[in-house]
Specification:
The chain is mostly beta strands. It is 0% helix and 29% strand.
Length: 52
């Protein structure tokens, strides 16, 4: 039997300081993301950087 699983990590948004986000808008850009699991079980982005 083939099933489907829907997961939400809560990591769909990451806010950056004003006028610093252009480097994150390049098509095909790869990223490195550090995530910490909060005591209540939710993932929280700690750091994001481009891989260029």
């Amino acid at each position: 039997m083939v099933g489907m699983l829907h997961l939400e990590y809560g990591l769909e948004r990451f806010y950056v300081e004003e006028n610093t986000g252009k480097k994150f808008e390049e098509p095909g850009q790869e990223y490195s993301v550090a995530v910490k699991v909060a005591p209540w079980g939710k993932g929280v982005i700690q750091k994001i950087q481009t891989e260029k």
